[in-house]
Structure formats: structure tokens, C-alpha cells
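SUBJECT: protein chain
CONTENTS: sequence, C-alpha cells:
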Amino acid sequence: MEDNTYILKKTNEIITIDNKADLKSLILNMSVQAKRYILMFSHHLDNQLFDHKALYEAIKSLAIKNPHTYIQILLQDSQPISIKGHRLLTLTQRISSHIEIRVVAKKHLDIIETFLVFDDHSYIIHQHPDRYDAEANFYDVLKTKDLNEKFKKMWDHATIAHSLRPLNL
């Protein structure tokens, strides 16, 4: 996937991905271009897609950009990152005023796909956690609005995972 071909808030084209390398690149590309916020809904933040230095730096850069930027992460299962660790968990613990992780309510555990929303206009939908097929668009306000609303409803019912909080010793 060419990093300079697609531009947030400009490229209105459905992009289909069918492999891990392209999906990882797409997530990074959109994250680097985000200006205000990123919303992530994931089963467990797949390490192969979300736990690498370049994404960590992109998320960190957005989080400290200004007082109004934020990253919200909703997980169905927080145990894998709690046990194994994860760069985004570490970042959340360091910059908790701009990045927050919550665990979804039981009624949202049946949702299969992972999705990400970038600002008010861009999205990625990763269809199934066992495969790397995905759909994305760098400028689709209507689809992004739907995903944003879906995310916000789940966020409002989610809980803070105490196992993800840092220990203050």
C-alpha cells in the first residue's frame, strides 16, 4: 500500500485489503494523518497489527499534539494485553489524560469486526479477527458517522479495566 497515495479527508475511495502487511500499513497511514482523534474497537488489540514502534509513535504524537486530541480504545478482552503487555497499554498508562482503554459491556461481546475511526471522516473495518481482510475509506463522512455513533454507544456502557491501570508503588 502506497503511503502517499491516500490522504485523510481527500481520498473518497473504498479500499479493500486482504493481507496483514497492507492492513498494518493502512492502520499506520491513517493514524499518522489523524488530526483530532482515533477510536478503536477491537477484540484484543492484535499484537501483529497494533503493537509496533511506528504506531506507538503515531499515537503518541497525536495524543500530545494539543489538549483536545484523544484516543479511545474499546476491547472485548483486555486479558491478553494485561498479561503479555502492549505498547499502546504502556502509552495509555503514561498519557492517561489523552488515551483511555475500556472493556465493552457483555451485550457487545458478540461483535466480530474490529473498526477504527479517524477524525470525522475516515474509517477501517477489519472484518474478522482470524483473517486480515478489511475495508477502508479516507473520506466517507456518512459511514464514519455511523461507526462513530456505534462506538460512542458502546463506550458509554463500557467499564474501565482495573487490570490495565498502572500499579502505584
Remarks:
- The chain has a mean pLDDT of 91.
- The chain has one domain: 15-164.
